[in-house]
Write a structure and sequence with these properties.
Elements lengths: L3 H15 L4 E6 L19 E7 L2 E6 L3 E5 L5 E5 L9 E7 L2 E6 L6 E5 L5 H7 L13 H9 L5 H7 L8 H11 L12 H21 L39 E5 L2 E5 L7
Antiparallel strand pairs: 1-6, 2-3, 3-4, 4-8, 5-7, 6-7, 9-10
Helix pairs in contact: 1-6, 3-6, 5-6
The structure holds zinc ion (ZN).
């Protein structure tokens, strides 16, 4: 599943190239997770102003209205001057004067939603409750510590819930907790201030590194310019159950938390 770094890398891969383009046509394939929310033809003639991101949503701002794009479980975007005819898993084409932006999504949990503005009911529903952006300067330590104190559940689950910080998915939650030396099962509210501060720093570092590397090794990911498979994140614990910890050589452990796999080192990560 594309996580926040993949979405950010996708954004960077086409944001500049599509800026200023005029929409010439919109083509829909099979239904995605949510309906588009407008008659596709109404977008023809509008200009693409910019491509932003909030959590795992890409925000394609038009001179009137905007498109919210989510990659779901298996979605990927491509942007190129010319693309081949749409295949069975290509469910959205935004044809512009500078190229075509295409959503390829075999499992169709992704979505493209048109809204008039970010105050639109649907936009508020999708974006209104998202927590702070981990890669923004506004992601403050004090606020993060205060958020953790409000939650009695396991820190890993609290990270995934997206209220204390948005977009820290399963892979990066495991990696950040390892980096901070925190056992994933510790109750969020019980973390001391210094440990919460270490976790805050680890989240920023892990996600920043992943963006810098171009994301992680995710099977369905390809950047919008079509370069597949260059995400080569060296994970410390994620996906390494039973293998020796890179730091202490003890075996990495795998547990289930809320039906999600959690990887941790019982020696390096303290309860
Ligand atoms: Zn270890």
């Amino acid at each position: 599943m594309p996580e926040l770094p993949e979405v950010e890398v996708t954004r960077r891969s086409f944001a500049d190239a599509i800026e200023g383009a005029t929409v010439q046509a919109v083509r829909l394939g099979k239904p995605l997770r949510w309906p588009l929310g407008c008659v596709p033809e109404t977008m023809v003639g509008r200009k693409v102003l910019s491509v932003g991101r909030r959590g795992k949503y890409l925000l394609i701002s038009l001179n009137q209205g905007l498109l919210l794009v989510h990659l779901g479980m298996s979605g990927s975007l491509r942007f190129a001057p010319v693309l081949p005819a749409a295949g069975a898993h290509d469910h959205f084409d935004l044809v512009t004067s500078l190229g075509t932006l295409r959503l390829h999504d075999p499992r169709r949990f992704g979505a493209v939603v048109y809204v008039d503005s970010l105050n639109d009911v649907q936009a508020l529903k999708l974006l209104g409750r998202l927590g702070p952006e981990p890669l923004a300067d506004t992601f403050g330590v004090a606020q993060f510590q205060a958020q953790l104190r409000r939650h009695q559940s396991a820190i890993k689950s609290v990270l995934l819930a997206g209220e204390a910080v948005v977009g820290v998915g399963n892979i990066y939650a495991s990696e950040a907790l390892f980096m901070a030396g925190i056992r994933p099962t510790v109750r969020a509210a019980r973390l001391s201030r210094p440990r919460a501060a270490r976790l805050h720093a680890a989240i920023v570092q892990v996600l920043g590194q992943a963006v810098a590397l171009g994301g992680s090794t995710l099977r369905d990911f390809s950047s919008a310019s079509g370069q597949a498979g260059y995400f080569q994140l060296q994970t410390m614990v994620y996906g390494r159950a039973g293998l020796p910890c890179h730091v202490c050589a003890n075996p990495v452990r795998l547990i289930k938390q809320g039906q999600r796999s959690t990887f941790y080192c019982p020696t390096c990560q303290k309860p």
